Amino acid sequence: MKSILFTIILAVFVLFGASAQKSDKNRNPKNDSITLKNLNEIVITAVRTNAPLKELPAAISVVTTRQLQALNKTIDAGEILRLVPGVKVDNGTGGSRIHLYIRGQGVLSETGFRGIQVLVDGISMNDPGGFCPDLYDLDWATVKRVEVVKGLAASSYGGSATGGVVNILTQDGGDKPVNSMLYASAGSYGFWKILGQVDGTQKDMNYRVSYSHTQGHGYRIHQSFMGDNFSEKMNWQATDKIKITQLLSYTNYFNQNSEGINLGRYDTVGHTAANTDAIRYNEFHLTRRLTGALIGKFDLCKNSDLLLKGFARFNNYQETSNNGDDFKPFTNLGFSAQYNLHSGKEKLKNHFSIGADFQTKKMTEHEFAVPDGDHIKNNRVDSYWSQETFDLSTLLINQIIKQRSAGIFLIDKLDIANKLYATVNLRYDYVYNELINNIPVAADSLNPNGSRTFDKPTYRIGLAWDLAKSANIYANYGTGFLVPTEDELYNNPDAWGGFNNNIKPSTSQGFELGVRGDIGNMFHYDLTGFYIDTKNEFYRYSVPGRGNNTAFFGNKGASNRYGIETFLGVNPVNNLNIELAYTYSHCTYTSPDSVKGHFIPQCPQHILAAEVSYNFLKHFTVAVNVEYQSKWCIQVDDSIYQQFTENGIKRSSWVNGYKVFSANVNYNWKLGWLKGDIGLYAKNLFDEQYFGFTEPNNGSDYNSFQPAPGREFFVNLRLKF
Questions:
Q1: pTM attached to this predicted model
Q2: What pLDDT score was predicted for residue 287?
Q3: Backbone phi and psi for residue 418, each to the nearest 5 degrees, phi listed first
Q4: Could you tell me the domains of the chain?
């Protein structure tokens, strides 16, 4: 019935738009999203060689300014990346805390995501081991474009980018000396957000300063979130040959942790239920982070330039749970340098780059024991924003973790007669981890200290053939490796303390073949097929009786991933846009025999997102969209779950998929010097009950299900002056 309704709405839009159809020569390009995806006009910066999209042998998607301006809540990466094929964003919290995967890479991490390099204005959000804890530093209302590179084409960033790169470019200041923006949004479950921004250009200096506050009660019990974001950006054109960019951001983000629940609790209590420990122990996450960065571009001569980047990041993180109250402050410093040389003539040009990345991180962790749940329950004060804890003097963890990483890379891009473009990437990475345990141990215990070092060269070769505007063909083959994160290392299954010496880096090799193009001003398409073979695939498990250590990680044989990613954008008539992103993926283990042929958890075979939008009466835009995911597997091994019965129901390793419909209407206006827009947004129109995120475990009743929000309504207002 829902599918039929969506089809009827789509047909009405098409018929209504057909009545306003004009000839191609009268079309207004500013109203067409396809024009914004022109392969000749879009210059990609995410692969370290600034070049038009048509010249790059890689599957790359771009979220444009037009799409970003149409956002509603502006707090969730899933809202931004839903029309990017190959990308999956899980959000079981209703706030900004997410899990992000590209082509099935990055799954099974307990927090954050790994294997995906995240850049904000060119500055890495990942630590030396390639782990990105969150995207709290971002206010999506201040972003002007997002570039997503998928697969091993991202190898120029080394071990932190086997899945791909998400390159986020924030807005610069406007042309006038002073511009202002005020944005406000409010809606279901106590949600509201307000943002103020001032920006402009003064002679050779461009600036932007913004601050926002966001909060909400959350869809589930004990799921409140609250965040403050300050962001400042300045571009200074010191001379014709020197440009300096300075960045500063501060984040204060708090979210209650309702945790996942097992299916027994879901069946008996309902989809808003929290884990039984969540309220009793006032479980929450608190992040306070300050990041400063400098970027300098120096034109050395007509054909060569030098790019230097440096950043310092200071982070205070606290997580409280029934296992303890954990404090993880760290300092993260990074530096990179890249030299670019351009040579040759029109029919044969060479673009050569050589560079190095270096990062260091030091984290001091203290975890205090907490009283039993009844003691806390009888003494604590419950509220949406309570940060109350009842720490004991007993230290469960007192350790220092140090990380260093260094990578050198070489990129050579050859342009042949403006039609054929060949690219070669070479890189070598070195990652060092050290643990210092400050808790005394018995003389006969295993050494609680340790160090692990990982290093490996990787490469990628690719070819792009610009056959015609309607057919840009590309192919590449590459290798990559992914190192264990600090959590996966210091959660040691063999001893209390020390590093996990069993886990190894995973290594990958793969290829992709794709074609993309524009047909007139009406049609844009991108079709990519990929195959990835991985050895030493990571997996997650638990060890009974290990107390505060709840998740351990190891290697589970080998796997392969293959699939097809498709994006279609159509403007059949003026002011009507249809966009569709579809991903088919087949992600299975190939060894050992016990799991051979079994699907990798969190990897549905089918993901679809589609949107139809229509602009009418010059100022109104109406849009309807659908998001669909097929079922996925939660367990690495079916035998863990196949004998388990709960509440009289036989459980399986599979999680039901979902189909969610949403709609919004927007009105924009201009009154003299004041411009603005107001929008109404309804998400999950049919109140579908589904799981936004799941986590596996090897205990039959430990599997974690986080229900997603039901029907939601929001209103937003943006003023520019």
A1: 0.91
A2: 96
A3: 55, 20
A4: 2-720 (2.40.170.20)
